[in-house]
Amino acid sequence: MQHIRVRRHLGIVGDRYFAQPAHRDASVTIMASENLPTHIDPAVGLQQTRRNILLRGVDIDACIDRIVELDTGDGPIAFAVNRAARPCAWMDAVIGPGAQRALRGKGGVRCTPLSDGVLRVGEAEFRVIGPRGPR
User: Fold this and answer.
1) Distances in Å between the alpha carbon of 25 and those of 22, 65, 71, 127?
2) CA–CA distances in Å: residue 42 to residues 29, 33, 38, 89, 117
3) Which tens digits make up the pLDDT trace of 68-81?
4) b/e 39-67 (16+ beta carbons within 10 angstroms → b)
5) So what's the pLDDT on residue 45?
6) DSSP letters along the chain, please?
7) pLDDT-based confidence at residue 135 (cuts at 50, 70, 90)
8) CA-to-CA distance for 14 and 27, rounded, in angstroms?
9) How far is CA 93 from CA 33, 87, 97, 99, in A?
């Protein structure tokens, strides 16, 4: 997939959690590529980790309770970073034994999109806007 369309408070168009009320505060997951357990499986990626967006060079796990912006050239999209995306036992099944443990504390974050837009594969501008307001 070369691009995704993000909708404010709904998620990623076409994703299984799009517009699902139970997942509105967790409809988008973002992870740092540096945290992929490539020592277990060198080919591991977004599909196996069940994350939506992979960033390089950003400690996204440190951004909980913040508002961040991503811009891949079509304008910035803001996300409220709500909580850690805790890895489940399924990670050991799809990546390999030890993957769940390897991802603890660095498995990415669950977010709510705060604006509409398009994100494309490639270079992106990332910035922390400020603290997330009350829920």
Assistant:
1) 8, 12, 21, 20
2) 21, 12, 4, 19, 32
3) 999 999 999 999 99
4) ebeeebebebbbbbbbbeebebbebeebb
5) 87
6) --EEEEETTTEETTSTTTT-GGGGGGSEEEEEGGGS-TTT-TT--HHHHT-SEEESS--GGGGTTEEEEEESSS--EEEEEEEE----THHHHHT-TTHHHHHTT-S-EEEEE-S-EEEESS--EEEEEEE----
7) low
8) 12
9) 20, 12, 7, 9
pLDDT tens by residue, 6-42:
999 999 999 988 999 888 889 999 999 999 999 999 9
Instruction: Count CB neighbours of 104 within 10 A.
Output: 11
Q: What pLDDT score was predicted for residue 134?
A: 74
Q: Which residue shows structure tokens 């909708």? A: 7
Q: Contact at 8 Å (CB) between 66 and 100? A: no
Cβ–Cβ under 8 Å, residues 10 and 3: no
